[in-house]
Specification:
The structure holds two protein chains of two kinds. Chain A is of the alpha/beta class. Chain A is 46% helix and 19% strand. In chain A, strand 1, helix 2 and strand 2 form a beta-alpha-beta unit. By secondary structure, chain B is an all-alpha fold. Chain B is 77% helix and 2% strand. Classes of the chains: A alpha/beta, B mainly alpha.
């Protein structure tokens, strides 16, 4: 090899590698005693992607910490990073949060929590709004997590949702469930919903979409074959929800959704969980870990599987559906946008 | 952090080497990359979760990537589908293949054996397991590539890329060369996908998005920084390019720029690197004119 640039670069690389190696090996022996300094505690938050409901969770986490007396800039430092849906960045960001000596890490959405879990097995991790922590391999036991991970597990209130749908459309025989095949959580929610609906004597037709481009066609198909549509918590569908509503409106079929803000956007109703509140709960758990009150290993995962009914009256009128008074009394009524 | 970035650079450098085999030698961009990369990871992680040993699982991932490349090659040479289109077709088809293999869009390796465990158990400082793994993989791949390209067969392969008509006139079956090139290249890409999936701890069907940019970035940074070099140096330059790209990304994160807009910064880095030869040329041209006067 004659190129000086390449040889130089390789030498530089080797020097850095060997240097850091020697330094870290050396500091291993002398270390330990030096990190007793009184510093601001650091909370690292890693969010998977910018998305209205995830942003709400993040805001909720910060609120939850504040409620427990931990405020950014006063007695803690909050390091917030957003992976913008890029899997490889989530890893380097997890590393960075660890480098900043985070005392507790908070992962917003499953991929972020997974990246954090993969980066450390010591620093406590609080999962924020993860729908299937066991399936994702984050914890093995909800009651007794054992490792460095605990947090909030939000189970979409599927049973409550389908009960409400049954009450609203007692004559319905078939329900169409549309979900995206590339989202783990979405699929597991549909599995639960299918089980429940079949138990209640409904025929379930499932339609998987592989990208938001399929939504129009699949919705048309589903509207022809079913009495009403049921949509899980699904990022792909959420971002193309207007397309779906356009089609279902043409066919005069109601769409039962799983997220509260999708009711405003044209869904008929849901039993929704307030994302902000989920965040607040995770923030409180993080605060307990910070103050030393609890340890992730012995803190049960907080399973939240209930919610509030929300209905869109304008949409009901538009589709000619009368909402039973019984539901109207209990539910929060919103107007369409 | 720096060590982690260097380790990542090695693993992504393998991807660069794989893309190099088609993009620079055969002179066409192979879009199959964005499918074979996550495919390698998907097959490998599925195999590991089913109890296959990590090394063998990684080999399975490579084989899967080679199959993908082979299909693109057949569509291109036998089906006469333009190569970019053939690659895109295979890439989007692989999305379903991965779903079929994994049965879920995202499969985790938490608490499962991984190929780097051997190095992790040596109790090295943080991230040196990945550096070692990457380094060994790079040495093996570069060695194999060098061996391959200096056989008669490899020379015929290079000739195909240099001048297809010439190659055909001296009796080289250029179609076969292209198929083999695509097959091998995607095998290398899948290896990179399998190693990165194990390093990340999961496989995801969305992992392929944008990887071709990372691969091209390594090749181009290597070329721009080190200029005209011999073949072996070129391969090394790609790996160095990959490390430099990872370090640049690290600098961006460290500099405290808003990571929400990370993608535009990586695009800017790449665009700048691509423009450096032009900028150099423009400057040279100017001085040339001055002398002329």
């Amino acid at each position: 090899m004659k190129n000086k640039g390449i040889i130089g670069s390789i030498i530089a690389l080797a020097v850095v590698l060997i240097g850091v190696f020697a330094y870290q090996m050396g500091s291993r022996q002398t270390g330990a005693a030096t990190d007793n300094k009184e510093e601001l505690k650091t909370v690292g938050i890693l969010q998977f992607i910018s998305h209205p409901s995830l942003d709400q969770i993040k805001d909720g986490v910060i609120k939850g910490l504040k409620d427990e007396g931990y405020e950014d800039g006063k007695n803690i430092k909050i390091e917030f990073l957003n992976g913008q849906g890029d899997q490889s960045k989530l890893n380097s960001m997890s590393q960075q949060l660890l480098e900043k000596n985070s005392d507790v890490l908070i992962g917003v959405a499953t991929p972020a929590a997974k990246a954090l879990a993969n980066a450390t097995s010591d620093t406590p991790i609080i999962m924020s709004a993860i729908s299937d922590p066991i399936g994702a391999g984050l914890v093995t036991d909800l009651k007794n997590p054992g490792g460095n991970i605990t947090g909030v597990n939000n189970l979409t209130p599927v049973d409550q949702q389908l009960d409400m749908a049954m009450e609203m459309f007692p004559e319905a025989k078939t329900v169409g469930m549309i979900y995206s095949s590339s989202e783990e959580n979405s699929k597991s929610q549909i599995d639960r919903a299918e089980k429940r609906a079949t138990k209640d004597g409904l025929t379930v037709k499932k339609y998987a979409i592989s990208s938001s481009n399929d939504i129009a066609q699949i919705t048309q198909q589903a509207c022809q074959e079913t009495d009403y549509l049921y949509i899980p918590q699904d990022n792909t569908i959420a971002s193309a929800f207007q397309t779906m509503i356009n089609e279902s409106d043409k066919a005069k079929k109601p769409v039962f959704v799983s997220v509260d803000n999708m009711v405003k956007e044209g869904g008929i109703a849901t039993v929704g969980q307030n994302q902000f509140e989920l965040g607040v709960e995770s923030g409180k758990m993080a605060a307990d870990v910070l103050s030393g009150k609890s340890k992730p290993a012995s803190t049960p995962v907080n399973v939240i599987d209930y919610g509030d009914m929300i209905i869109n009256e304008d949409k009901a009128k538009e589709l000619g559906i009368t909402i039973p008074e019984k539901i109207k009394e209990k539910a929060e009524v919103v107007k369409g946008e | 952090m720096i060590i982690s970035a260097i380790g990542q650079g090695f693993l992504w450098g393998i991807l660069g080497l794989g893309i190099f085999m088609t993009y620079r030698i055969l002179n066409f961009p192979d879009m199959t990359t964005e499918g074979s990369f996550p495919l390698g990871g998907a097959v490998c992680v599925t195999a590991i979760t089913n109890g296959v040993s990590p090394i063998f699982a990684t080999l399975l991932g490579i084989v899967a990537g080679m199959c993908a490349g082979f299909i693109t090659g057949m569509l291109y040479t036998k089906g006469k589908i333009p190569v970019i289109l053939a690659g895109i077709l295979v890439m989007s088809g692989l999305n379903s293949v991965m779903l079929f293999i994994m049965q879920t869009p995202n499969l985790s390796l938490l608490k499962q054996p991984k190929i780097q465990d051997f190095f992790t158990n040596l109790n090295l400082p943080d991230h040196f397991d990945i550096v070692l793994l990457g380094l060994i993989a790079i040495i093996i791949i570069v060695g194999l590539l060098l061996f391959f390209f200096f056989t008669d067969f490899g020379q015929a392969y290079i000739a195909t890329g240099d001048n297809e008509n010439m190659a055909r006139s001296i009796g080289i079956n250029t179609d076969r060369m292209k198929v083999i090139g695509l097959t091998l290249s995607n095998g290398v890409i899948a290896l990179s996908g399998a190693l990165i999936a194990q390093n990340d701890g999961y496989a995801d069907i969305g992992k392929g998005v944008g990887v071709i940019v990372i691969g091209l970035a390594s090749i181009i940074i290597g070329e721009v920084l080190y200029g005209e070099v011999t073949f072996i140096e070129r391969l090394v330059a790609i790996v160095l390019g990959s490390i430099i790209y990872q370090l640049l990304i690290l600098v961006i994160i460290k500099a405290g720029l808003d990571t929400t807009y990370l993608k535009i910064f990586s695009s800017i880095i790449l665009a700048l690197c691509l423009m450096i030869p032009r900028l150099k040329e423009a400057l040279n041209l100017k001085t040339g004119l001055e002398k002329g006067e």
